[in-house]
Amino acid sequence: MPDPAPPADTLLDAIRAVVGDRGLLTGRADTAAYTEDWRRLYQGRTAAVVRPGSTQELAEIVRLCAAAGTPIVPQGGNTSMVGGAVPNEDGSEIVVSLARLNRIRDLDPIDMTMTVEAGVTLKAAQLAAADRGCLLPLSISSEGTAQIGGVLAVNAGGNNTVRHGNARDLVLGLEVVLPDGTIWNGLRRLRKDNTGYCLRQLFVGSEGTLGIITAAVLKLVPQPKEIEAALCAVQTPEAALDLFTRFQAHDPAAISAFELMSGLGLSFVLKHIPGATLPLETAAPFTVLVELATPRPQAGLRAMLEQVLERALEDGTVADAVIAESEAQRASLWKLREEHSEGQKREGASVKNDVSVPVSQVPAFIRKATAACEALIPGVRVVPFGHMGDGNIHFNLEQPVDADPAWFLAQDHAIMDAVNDVVREFDGSFSAEHGIGRLKPYMMPDWRGGAELDLMQRIKAAIDPGGIMNPGKVLPPRP
């Protein structure tokens, strides 16, 4: 096959005619922010960043690109952890930013749904729901930047999955521009609609490889009337799991988050993040952030929290604990968890593993994976943290002190493979919530090979026969 060519000037002129000067960026200085991922793993090039102002404009852009055979990289807030939203290095791909599709089309507190465009940030959607007395129960650390289209395209999980599920569990309907420029309007607010294949779930988690999500109908829930949060010091992951089972025994529906953090990870946050403070008297090998919430008024969550923690302190399961006494204190506790990625970034080079195992196996996984990585790279600093309540652990590895960052990052495949060998022993997944992107397609044949991967390839070929939608992401090249 000939080398891919950059988009022709005639195509860019046609696109400009659709979106105007405001909607087309071509200068290197203007496009630079769209060609590098948040982790700085990938630095691509593009001749143009297109910023459509409506679904109809986007559909026309896709038709033009399909006719020209020009690949498209859809991009939301560009917060992908696996390079899923950046173009390649040869300059042949056009980036399509959804940022201008930023309207909230509808919000119905009776149906408990909201219809939002792809460029609305998750935080903006949360605030709009709260303004009408509702809760959009999806929360991730990058919610101030991440956009709804990207959040759905990767099937984001986040802090409240233990209670409300992943992003796909909150989607009732979608509007999608298909690879030929056709607009599929599936913006239905129905809770029951058993009319053939569930097409929306094809696009949730597809990372823009099958089409571009332009709008979505999302489920809402009642706003909590009571919220209680506590930070608990524990000596081992086993103690953290014991604490989780105690809360489950009392009221599993009250648990909105159960987050595990290592002492090392917390130390990076305290070292690098201004305003981060640890309210416990002493640091511990592991710390748990537990949050309870209920829409029922006077439900007695505080009494339940105190009762569970009191018994756990008495028998030594918990070494120390603090309960938030105000919203400001609750936010301060969450800051310790949400700044983990940034703290690691400022500490040095890190290799990230977004894995899941059965909840009951989290402690054993952490111990075995830690031993495997320490044997592989002496001095490596192991930083496991994340959503223990749903079995999703971000098993990250920080470079050894004084190691060369470039050398350490060059070990990423060996490190990820070592971790994934352990994940496989526990019947887990090598990608829990971050997706596949550019980083992990090479893993797909080993993990999802045979009939499963072949079916994915056939779906891709049927919907996107020209292969123009976010090429090089999710699926490996066919042999």
Report on this structure.
The protein has 479 residues and is α+β, with helices and mostly antiparallel strands. It has 17 helices and 19 strands. The strands form four sheets. Strands 12, 13, 14, 15, 16, 17, 18 and 19 form an eight-stranded antiparallel sheet that branches. Strands 5-6-10-8-9 form a five-stranded antiparallel sheet. A four-stranded mixed sheet has the order 1-2-4-3. Strand 5 and strand 6 (113-117) form a beta hairpin. The model has no long low-confidence stretch (mean pLDDT 95).
TL;DR?
With 479 residues, the chain is an alpha+beta fold. The protein is built from 17 helices and 19 strands. Among the domains are: 104-222, Uridine Diphospho-n-acetylenolpyruvylglucosamine Reductase, domain 3, CATH 3.30.465; 226-339, Alpha-Beta Plaits (2-Layer Sandwich); 348-434, Alpha-Beta Plaits (2-Layer Sandwich), CATH 3.30.70.2740.
